[in-house]
Amino acid sequence: MQEKGNISIHTENIFPIIKKFLYSDHEIFLRELVSNAVDASQKIKRLASIGEYAGELGALKVTVSFDKEAKIITISDAGLGMTADEIKKYINQIAFSGATEFVEKYKDKGDEKAIIGHFGLGFYSAFMVAERVDIISKSYQEGAEAVKWTCDGSTEFEISEATREARGTDVILHIAEDSLEFLEEFKIKQILDKYCKFLPIEIEFQEKIINNPTPIWAKSPSELTDEDYLKFYEELYPFSEKPLFWIHLNVDYPFNLTGILYFPKVKNELQLQREKIQLYSRQVFITDEVKDVVPEFLMLLHGVIDSPDIPLNVSRSFLQADSNVKKINSYITKKVADKLAELFKADRKGFEEKFENIGLFVKYGMISDEKFYDRAKDYCLLQNVDGKYFTLNEYAEFAQENQKDKNDDVVYLYASDAKAQDSFIQSAKKRGYDVLKLDSVLDNHFINQLETKLVKTNLKRVDADTIEKLIDKGLALEVVLSETEKETVKKVFEEVINDKSKVVALEAMPVDELPAIITQNEFMRRMSDMARVGGGGMGMFGAMPNNYIVSVNANHASVAKILQTTDAEEQKKLAKQVYDLALLSQNMLTGADLTAFIQRTALAL
Q: Which CATH architecture is the domain 381-470 placed in?
């Protein structure tokens, strides 16, 4: 038997199969061919299970081998095999998928989703790296003879008799000169590890099984222990810290989805490492670019998502438009929110201990997803500088008692750097006020969101102004200085500071407050901080110069001391010391100015 002919290409599908443009990444050829071999193996297994194949199944493993000298890569399986007529139908008619017909025929007899089903168009990815491809196949059907199909990448093919004892298929790639890199053992192993690590049929390479056919996401959670989940995490991310906890996803309606999402330890860094969640379709690796499948804020998670409703040859435009992908995205968001609520209710103390790590997920989700905000507001925690945690409702009730201003608005004071802002924190505590710790990279955005959500509530950084102005109770203190004295003090400080970006203002403050403080306009400072983190449209604020107010405590003893001396130089020395103390309290005193301050202070001892 020998036959020559032309491959029938359906015109609407001609572009996707052009040799060099079928896929952007040429290494995909191995994923496609191994997936096809797995598909053929699962088909014969399925036929045996429903009594339509009575022969011995034997070992259904797929073998990948190569011969560097002969420039050949071979993918062999013991699956369904093909007759000459089937090769003509499934290989020569490119637009036709053998898996589609198989699923249609047997869909009433079991789970048609178990078939990977890309023997057809995907097969032609072989020609991205091969100058010639041979198929030697023998069908499982009784009396079937082995057959060989050969094609050099053109539309011409040849079918002839072949020798093969057992059922199954060998796909033999004669590698082209421009693709010899794929004949290196490490390269083949790298591709198999990436795409075939969890395929449901054993894959053999260099006499070793290189995959795990039964990954834990394909099992029922009731079969698994914590140790199983931790072991799998280590398999995915060797040398990583243990995760905090995980979520096992398992849904079959209105879409199919399995997977495991791990919460890693993430503290004060926005680690959007997009390669940390892997997307699979029936255990075949698709991509680690899971944006659109997973909500943006959950890109911080690690793990695996597997959905047969996402095709192998997925594109960004498909992900954005597909209704199933949108449903999956919503489902994952809800599942994560429910898991966090469950942990909070079951063990609040344990949840508080983890919140330093998971707070970033929660806040990011609340900022970026309105539905997630509604779910998370009951377990999102605020921590004060003393380490005590409150829910949003608890803190609102707590602050109502003492932190209302003259307009009946509640003021939340917060520190973005508790150590650097300690003197301001102590000032607030003297008045009986509480100070929150909001120092994560997202907190500027989170603060803005809280102000839009919380009724008659303002958030103010503890060093943004004098404490009397931050929570203005309407109780005005009096300045003990005359107008002439005020002008004298202001002039001395302006001469010492000599900086147009800093405005001097004399304020009536308690005598036990600092002699001077430096503050920045709250709105401008917040916008600048958000611009640094990466807030949309905030770039202009990040580029604007900083302006500060130097608030001199007119009632402080140091001001009285400045007025008591008549020596102008002595007045400036005293004012310089007060000003440097104010700079020091804001971490703004550096270099030679800091050295000079230390030396002056040491001499005064």
A: 3-Layer(aba) Sandwich (3.40)
